[in-house]
Every structure is written in structure tokens, then in C-alpha cells.
Write a sequence for this structure.
């Protein structure tokens, strides 16, 4: 009995990726959330129990600034 040729290996492109991993950058759109963040800011994911307590960025920042005041300052090593 002959084997069915439709179950051949998937073809790979020049860079070795399968066709399903190729991304068409012509269809890409700008990040619609990028304007929410200032340059130099950092996005941090809070655990759900923490997020219930600190519901605004101001509350998180005020607690972190208070914590920074209690920490010893680092001296620059030369």
C-alpha cells in the first residue's frame, strides 16, 4: 500500500521557522496603551491582595517613598 504524501514534513523558511511562526509586520498596529506611561516609568504587576489595598498609583508611590526614607542610603564606591 502506498503512503499518503499529504502528511509530509512542514516546510521551513530560510531562517528555519515554520510558516505559522512568520509574522506579517505590515499588519502591526502601534501599542494603544503606550501613551499612558511616561518615559522612564516601570510597569509592575501587583498581586491581587496588594492591588485591593493600593488602588491608585498615588497610594503605591506614597508607600514606596515612605519606605525609601527608612532605608539606609548607599554610598558610591570609588
Amino acid at each position: 500500500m502506498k503512503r499518503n504524501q499529504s502528511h509530509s514534513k512542514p516546510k521551513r523558511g530560510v531562517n528555519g521557522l515554520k510558516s505559522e511562526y512568520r509574522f506579517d509586520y505590515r499588519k502591526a498596529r502601534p501599542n494603544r496603551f503606550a501613551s499612558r506611561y511616561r518615559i522612564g516609568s516601570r510597569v509592575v504587576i501587583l498581586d491581587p491582595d496588594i492591588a485591593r489595598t493600593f488602588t491608585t498609583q498615588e497610594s503605591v508611590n506614597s508607600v514606596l517613598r515612605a519606605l525609601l526614607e527608612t532605608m539606609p542610603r548607599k554610598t558610591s564606591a570609588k
About this structure: DSSP finds two helices and no strands in the chain. The chain has a mean pLDDT of 81. Residues 39-72 form one domain. Residues 57-70 form the longest helix (14 residues).
